[in-house]
Amino acid sequence: MYQQTTDPAKTQYNPQAATGFPVSYSSSAAYSAASSDYQPPPPQPKPIVEWSTGLCDCFSDCGNCCITCWCPCVTFGRVAEIVDRGSTSCGASGALYTLITCVIGCGCLYSCFYRSKMRQQYGLKGNGCLDCLTHCFCEQCALCQEYRELENRGFDMTIGWHGNVEQRSRGITMSTTAPTVEQGMNR
C-alpha cells in the first residue's frame, strides 16, 4: 500500500508550516490579508431576569384568571400570537390548542414550547424541563403568568400583535372606550 517516508532529505521546506514559533511578517500584503479577516466579537447574551410575577399571583388579574380557568385556549391563543410576533393568529393557535387537548388530552405538550420560546425571547429564568413540568402540573397558572408577563412588558393582549405594532407605530395609546360624538349639526 502506501509507505510513509520520514527521510528528512526527501521532505520539502514549507515556510507556511506551523512550527510553534512566533513569526513576524514584514510584508504589508500579509498584514492587510490578516486584518481583512477580522471578525467582530459576538454580541453579549441577554442577562437572565426573573419573571415579573410569580406562578400563583393570579389575584392581581381575576378576569384573565377566570377566562383561563374555563377556556384556556383563549389565553393560550393570545400569548402565542404575541410570542410568534403575529405569524400565527390568536384564533388559529387557540383552535390548535383545543384540538390537541380534545384528541390527546394534553394541551400542555403544545403550550410548554411557547413558554420556552417566550423565555428565550425575553431572557427569563428557567429551562425546558421546568417549562414542561410547569405546564403539565399547573397549566392554568403557567398560562396566566405568561399573559401577565407580556402585559407587564407593555402589550395590550386584547388587540393582538398587529394591534400592538400599529399602536406603537402611531406613538399613542388607544383608549378602551368609544370616542364621544357631538350631537346636532354645527358649522
Automatic annotation (TrEMBL):
Pfam families given in the database record: PLAC8
Record field: transmembrane: 94-113
UniProt keyword annotations, A-Z: Membrane, Transmembrane, Transmembrane helix
Matching InterPro entries: PLAC_motif_containing (IPR006461)
PANTHER family: DUF614 FAMILY PROTEIN-RELATED
Name used for this protein in its record: Uncharacterized protein
Species whose genome carries this gene: Clitoria ternatea
